[in-house]
Amino acid sequence: xxxxxxxxxxxxxxxxxxxxxxxxxxxxxxxxxxxxxxxxxxxxxxxxxxxxxxxxxxxxxxxxxxxxxxxxxxxxxxxxxxxxxxxxxxxxxxxxxxxxxxxxxxxxxxxxxxxxxxxxxxxxxxxxxxxxxxxxxxxxxxxxxxxxxxxxxxxxxxxxxxxxxxxxxxxxxxxxx
Length: 177
What we know:
Layout (H helix, E strand, L loop, with lengths): L1 E5 L5 H14 L8 H7 L5 E8 L2 E11 L2 E9 L8 H13 L2 E5 L5 H12 L3 E2 L5 E2 L9 E2 L1 E5 L5 H15 L6
């Protein structure tokens, strides 16, 4: 049965598996440094969730508790399990457990980004219309435009503003990058 386990800084085996997937699943400009990944594990509002089925590593979600919502910063499924419905299973389990979710995707400009949006839409996410730029993880990169999605409904402007403020000041705090 699919389940999620919260990873602590002492769980070196899970951290090693997650870091290996993290390094290959995201481009460098979307990654925290190893020091940053270590630092956020000790933040009370950050949750690193290791998804397993029986003893098999399925993937992970790295997320932040922001008011009544959980913000998914990173979600990745093991490459050998992609295309088997695990992304949807993981996301639906997570949404069921936490209730309200915010995440970001690239603007819908091509077939790949359209498929990504369709995946999230199928999982019950709604697209907001708020202009949004995600801060850079590295000073040499500029913030990049992303679309904000929310579950189970479109978030109000004041919820978006609270999310964006926390993203700028807490999630992307330079000491945690």
